[in-house]
Amino acid sequence: MRELWVESGGVRLFAVEEGSGPAVVMLHGGMANHLAALPLVAPLGDRCRIVVPDLRGSGKSWCSAPLTFDRLADDVARLLDDTGVDRAFVGGVSSGSGVALRFALRYPARILGLILLKPVYGGEARGYTEYQKTTFAMMDGVASRAVDEGVQVLRPLYASLPAGMREKALAMIEGFDPASVVATSHFIASGSQPFTGPEDLMSLECPTLLVRGDDPMHPAEVSDLYAAGIANCTVMPASTTETAEVIGAFVDRCLQTAA
User: Fold this and answer.
1) Is-contact 61 13, C-beta < 8 A?
2) Residue 36 falls inside a structural domain
3) What is the pLDDT of the chain when averaged over all its residues?
4) Is the dihedral of CA 150, 134, 71, 106 positive or negative?
5) Which of 51, 73, 198, 259 could disulfide-link to 102, CB 3.0 to 4.6 Å?
6) Residue 146, domain member (yes or no)
7) Whole-angstrom Cα distance, residue 8 to residue 157?
8) Beta-carbon neighbour count of residue 145 at 10 Å?
9) Does the residue 84 lie in any domain?
10) Residue 162 lies in a domain
11) What digits encode the pLDDT tens for the residues 66-87?
12) Cα separation of 34 and 29, whole Å?
């Protein structure tokens, strides 16, 4: 696994990469880093070039300035530029799927396929559900204390995770930058959306893989919206467990079709 540092908009962005061949970029969710997304694509490293960054304001990609979806999408484009990649499969899990979706809308000529895993965002026309608003506001209230009290204030947010996942999450936050944590939590709680409404989804022409969400943070109705609006969309159930295999099959199918 090779480490990368990329300059983008005054911020040093961190990423890891492995393998060679078609590029697959996978983006983590909120209040996480590349380690949360890496297992989703690591098995593809024997036939693809996998690139997994820390998004701006997360992990080692420190940034205390306000975040936007356009800025985050531009960071992905800069990452591709610096790694010499013209077109790539770009995906994200949870809130990272919003960045992937924004990239596909902003840079349609640069995407080979879009991968959306348990999406969060319903678009500006719908906004967050009441549960999402309440939960993200609570998380922001806790995370906003990080500058004064340190990143350990985040520990209670991970308390309900399964034991193995919880320990990995707690280890992950040790390297977080407090000011970046605040910037990220403010961005998530702001309700900013990566697209306006169904018309944006209908404009997508790239092959898309959707693994549905089915919990209050990843509402089924959001997945319904995507499945109905994106024309060339392969939909997998929320119960999908072999996610890496599903992504690999999607990538192979897209490459075979293109050939």
Assistant:
1) yes
2) yes
3) 95
4) positive
5) 73
6) no
7) 30
8) 16
9) yes
10) no
11) 999 999 999 999 999 999 999 9
12) 9
